[in-house]
Amino acid sequence: MASRRRILLLGGTGESRALAERLVTQDGVEVISSLAGRTEQPQAIPGSLRIGGFGGIDALARYLAEERIDLLVDATHPFAERISENAADACRRSGTPRLLLRRAPWQAVEGDRWISVADADAAAYAVPGLAERVFLSVGRQELAAFAPLVETWFLVRMVDGPRQALPLARCEVVLDRGPFEEEGERALLLEHRIGALVTRNSGGEATYPKIAVARALGLPVVMIDRPAFNAAETVTSVEDALAWIAART
Q: How far is 141 from 6, CA to CA, in rounded Å?
């Protein structure tokens, strides 16, 4: 009998969970999902699960060798730049085939009022003058870039409540987890009298409703572009990822 192929799935996204759900139904495949551990109560994922970082490139390369990982699929968030770079280096060192699963970025359409910027610092620079009340939809690590904007009131949405005070002079936190619907996003923006949106170009359908609502309300959107990251083998859908895996199992 052929041995089971072990797949390490770097997760944390809806695509990674959907891929794990499909893989666990296949014979001859063992899937291990790895989460960074930033969410206190992650959604259930089928298959084996490990939580926490690997400790750098060397440690990840050792893990791949010691755990006899046959394939690695990087399905982390499009802005999880460090883990993707570490995974690429570790796979090169260990000779482990690697696939990057990245959902396609959003594209502006007629009616959008996007201000495209390179990073959180540039986004903070673009905010003054846009609105007094801003929906700040970025990663927790990027909030500090907006600390100097003491005259701006921010609405911040998180999955888990903050463990310490946010570095923002005027803000309110709402706790929620996607996917979101346009009706709810419209109600949220109107209730808090939001005049502008700051967000990252994460892509996908789960959080797109806020973009559609901003367009419908005529609100400016400061859109943070994705960090540049290239991979030799990249797909944008779960189906294409399954095909890549099938060709190697």
A: 32
For each successive 10 residues of the chain (249 residues), what is the average pLDDT? 81 92 92 81 80 92 96 94 93 95 95 98 98 96 96 95 92 94 98 98 95 98 89 90 92
What architecture is the 5-103+228-246 domain classified under in CATH? Answer: 3-Layer(aba) Sandwich (3.40)
Q: Which stretches within 41-102 are classed as H helix?
A: 57-66, 81-94
Q: Where are the domains of the chain?
A: 5-103+228-246, 113-224
CA 38 to chain centroid, in Å, comes to 12
User: Which residues have CB under 8 Å from 10's CB, separation 6+?
Assistant: 16, 34, 72, 73, 74, 75, 76, 83, 87
Strand (E) positions, the chain? 5-10, 29-35, 48-51, 71-74, 98-101, 113-117, 133-137, 153-158, 171-175, 196-200, 220-224, 234-235
Task: Tell me the three state secondary structure of residue 4.
Answer: coil
Q: Which residues pair with 98 in a beta bridge?
A: 72
Residue pLDDT, tens place only, 76-107: 999 988 999 999 999 999 999 999 999 999 99
The torsion defined by the Cα of 118, 120, 125 and 127, in degrees rounded to 10, comes to 110
Task: Say whether domain 113-224 belongs to CATH 3.40.50.20.
Answer: yes
Residues 77 and 75: their CA atoms lie apart, in Å, by 7
Q: State the sign of the Cα–Cα–Cα–Cα dihedral 53, 55, 61, 66.
A: negative
Instruction: Supply the pTM of this predicted model.
Output: 0.88
